[in-house]
Design goal:
Length: 488
């Protein structure tokens, strides 16, 4: 199998960083190399959600170790995702900049719901037998994901509880119980409170657990094997841990030393899930988010991009005029080809999606459709998209016409004015929802301005568009690159 069919997935989790190198053979994924570093990123967050420098350095050192595996792969065969801690860290920008310079690929911060979707995809890749209703459980360092589905996920949940965050909250000094307070019981009750109204997720479903906490509990209960976790066994284990005085007192068989400090917190969450969802048995999956990322990557490159399905669903639900979305998208891309013929494929695709969604807010309001559309794109849980991608598309949707609203740039968000100009011009050309060719238009970029050259005859045929174009020139006067219109 050529290297072009190899993929790498990096999961920058709150407890550990994981790397997976895999390839597909006869449409079957084969894991070639795995690596893990227990960085406990969530441990480094202070009360103001700032990441401690020492923890950041520990995490960057792990990425240096991962880097050699990535050097021979095309960048579009690599996907690196950041989860709960990087979603919440107030000072994540500096860390992300350093991390990306080490890895040589962008890091995508994903929502909890997108994390759940990828976990489900990974677990399903390892599932045997005919499709059946399943409930997938994954306890991470900073969040816990639960998914109910059959062939596709039907319900996705991401809860703000994880083995590292609960360790900091309930077992910061390592004490499990005292004469007056049982901290393990407090942690379990807190987890059960988070699970309220989710009891139905496991109803009539096969329950499957993924990742470190579930695997650690399975090994402790089953002599080192990843066999099913039975209710009566985890009840006894939880009782044993709840009766211990200190984490250091836990002498459990087949427990990885690196997992030891967060084991009690993870067990409290897992046992709460068993109790609250009335689970009697949980199978253990060898796959999780990393395998889901690899399958997602392969789909993007072979015509199965989940993001395209998400956009199509949004267009349908928002009653978007598909013909107008096509017109604007085609013209925007034609103009971009004239302006920057070497624009990367991901930027072109971003422009296409923005054109498809530029009128989505009309289903709610005619006067505020741009603002509402941008809000919907940025704040919704969009399957397949990173938070950065949503922010970029929302910026385009918000600024498709009128005054260009400034927005603070930050790491991961550097708006591309080329895309914005081409979208805005395409919206002007097709403001009346009419097909109109732009073959005779020339669009170039100079050092300090864009230049749009239009035949006078074309303008005379479209007088309303001429006025809109001169208004557009005015809107770009305050931008770093101004727009000049030449009628020839």
């Amino acid at each position: 199998m050529p290297d072009l069919e190899r993929y790498a997935a990096l999961d920058l989790g709150s407890n550990s960083f994981h790397l997976l190198l895999a390839e597909f053979r006869d449409q079957r994924m084969v894991r070639l190399h795995t690596d893990r570093s227990m960085v406990r990123l969530a441990e480094g967050l202070d009360e103001e959600r700032n990441l401690a420098p020492a923890i950041a350095e520990r995490a960057l050192a792990a990425l240096h170790r991962f880097r050699p595996v990535l050097t021979e792969l095309p960048t579009d065969h690599i996907r690196c995702v950041g989860t709960n801690t990087l979603r919440t860290a107030a000072n994540a920008d500096g860390f992300l900049e350093s991390a990306e310079s080490i890895l040589g690929v962008p890091i995508e911060i994903i929502s909890g719901i997108e994390e759940a979707r990828l976990i489900y995809s990974g677990a399903m890749a390892a599932a045997d037998g005919p499709p059946r209703l399943r409930c997938i459980v994954d306890i991470g360092g900073g969040s816990t994901e639960l998914v109910r589905g059959r062939e596709v996920p039907h319900r996705l949940q991401s809860l703000y509880m994880g083995c590292v965050s609960f360790s900091k909250r309930f077992f910061a000094d390592g004490i499990l119980s005292t004469n007056t307070v049982n901290h393990f019981e407090r942690a379990r009750r807190a987890a059960r409170a988070e699970l309220q109204e989710l009891q139905h997720l496991a109803e009539n479903a096969e329950v499957v657990g993924c990742s470190g906490t579930v695997k650690a509990v399975a090994r402790v209960l089953n002599g080192g094997e990843l066999s099913a976790i039975k209710r009566e066994d985890i009840d006894k284990l939880a009782e044993q841990v709840a009766g211990a005085r200190h984490i250091a007192d836990l002498k459990l068989p087949d427990l990885d030393e690196e997992r030891h400090p967060v084991f009690a917190a993870g067990l409290a969450i897992l046992h709460a899930i068993f109790c609250e969802l009335d689970i009697q048995s949980m199978q253990v999956s060898p796959y999780a988010i990393r395998e889901g990322i690899v399958h997602d990557l392969a789909g993007r490159l072979h015509g199965g991009d989940r993001r395209a399905d998400t956009v199509a669903t949004l267009m349908h639900d928002g009653k978007v005029d598909a013909a107008q979305a096509r017109r604007v998208g085609d013209t925007a891309l034609d103009l971009l080809n004239k302006l920057r013929p070497d624009t990367p494929a991901d930027q072109r695709q971003r422009l296409r999606w923005a054109a498809q969604l530029h009128q989505i807010g009309l289903a709610l309001s005619h006067s505020n459709f741009r603002k509402l559309g941008a809000y919907m794109v940025e704040q919704s849980d969009l399957a397949g998209f990173s938070k950065n991608e949503q922010e970029h598309i929302a910026h385009l949707v918000r600024n498709q016409r009128g005054r260009i609203k400034p927005r603070r740039e930050h790491y991961g968000f550097r708006p591309n004015p080329d895309l914005l100009l081409c979208l805005r011009l395409a919206c002007i050309v097709h403001r009346d929802h009419t097909d109109r060719a732009v073959n005779d238009l020339e669009l170039k970029a100079r050092d300090d301005r864009y230049r749009l050259r239009i035949p006078q005859e074309w303008l005379e045929k479209n007088p309303a568009i001429e006025d809109l174009l001169y208004q557009e020139v005015d809107h770009w006067q305050s931008q770093p690159l101004m727009l000049k219109l030449d009628a020839v």
